[in-house]
Amino acid sequence: MKLIAEKRSKTDKYDVLRFVRNNGSCTDALMPRQGILPHDLVHYVVESALPLRHGFLSLLARGADAQFVMESVHDKANPNVETEAVQAEAIVEGLQAQLWSGAFDEDAFVAGAAAACTARNKPPFDFSQLALDLKSALYDRALALNEQWSSAPYYSTLSLEFSPVI
To answer: Which sequence spans correspond to the domains of the chain?
Structure first.
């Protein structure tokens, strides 16, 4: 699936992320400007690095509508949300907190992601199953993508390729 991030004018409060599936169909979402890498681009970093079959981007790649997925995954009262969808969202939120702080604290990141899952009555993602340096795989990649996105001129696009876990 191709992700096409469109940076709008300097005065816009939102940019747009279009998700173009391999079959040519697409869906899109508004990305609020927040001073760090936009939330949905953080999903790209997380879901490109971790084996999550039911994360936000994987669900979109399989045909789900972006607005529907956002509403269902963010609805804390919805017990039917896939565990991995909640885990992906929690990890993205934890990574965003690290980006806001300006430094990566692995223990705080893992604890924050776990707490967000627990609050939704889902088990936290087990990072110990991976031979992965979380700082390099997530935080440093998010910083690099943020630099790329921040330096993109207004009225331009940034394209990324996402391959869902099968």
So the answer is: 2-161
